[in-house]
Structures are given as C-alpha cells and as structure tokens.
Amino acid sequence: MARTTGETTSVGFQYVFPAIRGVQAGREFFVSMCPLRLIPKIFLFDDDEIAPEVRAQRVLNKGRLPALSRYILDNPDDYVFSALTASIDGDIAFEGIAGEGTGMRAGQIRVPMAAKFLINDGQHRRAAIELALKENPDLGDETIAVVFFHDAGLARSQQMFADLNRHAVRPSRSIGVLYDQRDDLANLTRLLALKSPVFKQHVEMESSTLSARSRKLFTLSALHSGNQALLLGLELKREDANTLVQEFWEHIDTLIPEWAMVRDRRLTAPDVRRDYIHSHGIALHALGRVGNTLVRESVDPAVWQQRLKRLTSVDWSRTNHDWEGRAIIGGRVSKSHTQVTLTVNYLRRALKLRLSPEEQRAEDANKRGDA
Question: Is 170 strand, coil or helix?
C-alpha cells in the first residue's frame, strides 16, 4: 500500500507504493495497490471548465456518481472496481526487491509528494470513491489497483485516454440483465424469459438486437424494459411482482395471436418481426406503460384483463399507416423517447385511457408535424 516516508529529498517527502514493473511500447509502467482513502487526496482530474483541447479527459458526468457510490455502499462485501490508470508528473524511482538480480520486477516506487497524479482512466470511479468514503470512512482501508505511467505531457495523456477508450465496448443491455444477480427486476425478467410458456426459448438472452434470420422473437433487454414500465411505482412484494408480470404477459399473449403461431410453428419469428411491430422493444415498452396505468386503477386481474381486451382492435402490422411517425420512422422501427410516447398514446386511445400532459404535448407536436 502507499505510504509516506520521513525521508527528505530535493523535493521534500515521498509517497512509497509497492509495485510491479512492466514495459509497454518501450515505456516503463508500474502496477500497484492504493488505499481508497488516498484516492481523493492524491489523484487529480482536469477542471471541467478548461477547454477540451487542453484537457486530458472528458468532463466528469456528475449524474453518474450517486449510482456508482451507492453501488459501493450497498455492496460492501462484493463490489468490484477495475484498476485506475494514472500518469505521474514527477520523478519515479523504482527499487527492486534485494537479491532478485538485474531482471527484478517486484519492489516499490518512490514518488515525491510534490508530484502530480493525473487520472487517465477512471475519473468517475475516483469521484464515486470520494463520495462513498464520506458516508462510510471504514472503506478507506480497502484498496484498488492502479497502473502508473510517467507523464510525458498533455499530448501523450490525451492519446492515452483515446487509446484506453478506443476499443472499449459496452456490453449489451441484454447480457447486463442476464448476468445481474443483485437487481430484483433483472432476476424477475430472466426467470420469466426462461420459464414462461409465452417467452421460453423465444428470447435472445445476450444480444439486444436480432438479426433478420434470428429464430428468436424478443430480446431480453426489450422484455426487461416492458417489465420495468409495467412495475414502475408499484410497491409490490417480490412474489406479487412475479405473479403480476407473468399474468400480464400471458394475457397479452391471448390478444396477439401471432406470438402463439410462432410457438406452434405456423409462422416464423423472422416473418413476424418483419411484418408486425408487436414483438419489438417499443411495443413491449408501450404495453408495459399502459398496463401500469390499468393496474394502478385496479389491481384486480379480472378488471385490468377485461380492459386490455380492447387491444384486439389494434392493427399491429407494419402496413398500418398509423404507425408511420409513431413506431416507424422512414420504414424502420424506432425506439426513441418520442416514438415510445407516441406509441403509448396510440394504445391509450385504443383502450380509451387519458393521456398525461407530457403525452398530450407529444401528440399535439406529432399532429403539427413537429415530432
């Protein structure tokens, strides 16, 4: 762990980090461990008011910090943070373990306390750690891996940031739901996809998009969005939420005959996705939204199921010109916020439900041609 020493140098006191030395592209770097309590004190990030061309990182997105901080605080026994990458603007003196010879790689680095530590990758993790420590100082004794490079100037730091993020690929939303063991809604959705007779074997569990030839009818991320919309604001116990989502989608299934025809192999999934919009993410999301309204008005399944029967009047085929400008833009299904709202509005009209003020504004804009 990093520590300060009482030894003075030409620049004053020092930080001492246990480290392993390596080489990339002919440049030395060092891998170390740093106590969380030191992270906010020694690692800097650029002022967000500095012009982009003279910064080494993107502007800190403060909206991300509460969720990252809560992740640490709510999961103190099994949170996982990947290594920070930092550049040191100052001298780095490496001391290998005695007796290891000239090829030694394990040892410690000494860095003057006057040196600057600039984060190249991980500024949001650093800020979240700072927030979490304010609420739980005991986390300060835990450690995070840090990869240190010698600062070779602004151009090099900017290039490091670009290189570190160039090939980063965010996992699909579906695989995020598939692997998330903490979130109750993810667990519920995963169980529904694997066990429900409506969805079993017809949900793509990893990708959030379906190829034209895919034999799956839905994506896990689309089903998750539909469940999220359905349960929004409903304070239900886990068992009751499980029961509601299962009953809701099983009833929707009775109102959309093409889903059953795919299961019975009278239609193929690619044909249904090509000719209808009801298996697309925008439709599942919209169905969840209107279902949420009906359940709020009456939790009695007999009541909301009876009201949902009006959906049989909806023409879900792409040839229905009503979808153009709502669910379909330029011949392609679009799941933008506006398109979801306009699709919800269409279903609300079919179910004789009122529009919210926001929904009414979107509807008025669509009629004016502003949407």
Answer: coil
